[in-house]
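Whether sequence alone determines local backbone shape is best considered at the level of individual chains. In the encoding step, the backbone of a single protein was reduced to a row of integers, each denoting a local shape. For completeness, the protein is quoted in full, as a sequence line and a line of structure tokens.
***
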Amino acid sequence: MPIPASELNDSTLILSYGYTLRCRVSLFLMVQETKSVRSRVLLSVAMLPVLFQVSQVRADSVGDAASGKRLFGQCMACHVVKADAPRMMGPNLYGVVGRKAAAVPDFAYSAAMKNSAVVWNEQELGEYLKKPAAFMPGTSMVFFGVPQDQARADIIAYLKEAVQ
């Protein structure tokens, strides 16, 4: 059973090979809710230009902080990005860009994080967010990572903007 269109927002799906595919989910559901198979096919073909806008995104593209804020929602179970806010399960990420790894006081970092010489710049954060356990074996962060280049750039842009 499809999700009602009233409960959906715009989604951004980021594909590998450096392409971003923006699709309007409500239009897709309109096709799904159509009864006749012939009407579905015709509506699908007619809506393709509207449903999908493909634009190439380079790996070094500039992040979108607004999109990053939405994407950061998955991080909010463990992290907060607010000055002087108490830490959660993970450290407060306010001001993380430019900060040395394991620098939040009173947080029990893994030995790997404490012993690293990492200073969180855009490149280091990007690699860490891609696959934390591969970037820093022994990290206690239980997260599989963000494989999409643009999504990582967006999250980093949000982390940078949050301190301004």
